[in-house]
Amino acid sequence: MRSWFAQPAKEAGAMAPVIDDDLHEGAQKKVDLSILSEPELNSLILLVDNGVRIIEPNFFKDSKAVKELKMASPSLNEHTLLTHLKSMSGKGIIDVDTTDPVLQCPQCRGQDIRIHFSCQKCGSKKVHKSMIIEHPFCGFKGTQKEFLSGEDLTCPNCGTDLTQRVDQIDSNHEEYYRVIGSFFECESCKHKMSRPEIAFTCSNCGNQFMYVDSIYEGLKKYLINDDVYDQILNRNNVKVLIVEDFEPEADVIGYLIDCYDSEKKFKVEYASTGNQAIMMFRRELHDVVILDLTLPDIYGLEVLEDMKKIKPDAHIVILTGHDDRETAVHAMKMGASEYIIKTSEAIQKIPKLIERLLSGKKGTT
Ligand SMILES: [Zn+2]
Ligand SMILES: [Zn+2]
Ligand SMILES: [Zn+2]
Known about the structure:
By secondary structure, the chain is an alpha/beta fold. The protein has 3 domains: 99 residues, Arc Repressor Mutant, subunit A; 76 residues, no CATH class; 124 residues, Rossmann fold (3-Layer(aba) Sandwich), CATH 3.40.50. The two termini are 48 Å apart. Helix content is 29%, strand content 28%.
């Protein structure tokens, strides 16, 4: 684990868990993203899709990166994203590095914090430190204020001008004085105290807070490593085309696939006519096509025939009404992978069917 900061890393992300890629045999090992919650994965996808690899401690002050993210996801919430980053680093999916502790505003996490003292009695910030002075020559002790005469110090007891500060009385010289203590005094209420209240003000949001409420911890810098980044970037590695002229039905199928697809590996597209479907298929060479036989322009079997010519190993699943069983069997002979009678039960099995077709296993719905 390399450190991105000059300071030694306090915390390092664990190695990301790796599982076998069961989708494509012989493919590279991949990171198991299924341990992420759906919102975490969505945050990760949002970052990767916007080209964000590194989340610096001041990330949310960088208006450009955040502006782009907010355009992509208007509901983006800084706190939520940070929570997800923390959680994902805990799961070893992303790496984290931490600086030495820095004082932070509990409200906005700002780091430009001013420290000031306030009066224990009246809360006024006009609190000044004052010294207690002794004039060893005459033995008088008093406050700095009592000794001050203009810029100089004069003993109020014996009137001697005091010019030399000493720490120990090794000589009883007349002009020597020493500081024997200090206290704080409130200008407003004249209250004297040995220790004033310590309070902080955030220069960013103006929040005033007591030191017990402040946050004093290292700033975190998150990094999405190359393996995870590439895996997210290439997550839509299964292209699915739903060819269905009845839009609500297409939406339901797309929705079911999306819900089933916890790893976001399916990229689903829609076509409402046969010609549109063939055009899109020619361009994208989808892995799986869900094909309704009754389309407004050309017959579904023609679409099937064209697609099998363009990409013989494409999995084409025929959607058919109850009366089309024979046609469906015919479609199977033409190279369709499966046919589905349009019932609620059968449609619900489509995502699982796609998974099975892709894994190359034989079976029926
Ligand atoms: Zn004196
Ligand atoms: Zn006061
Ligand atoms: Zn603040």
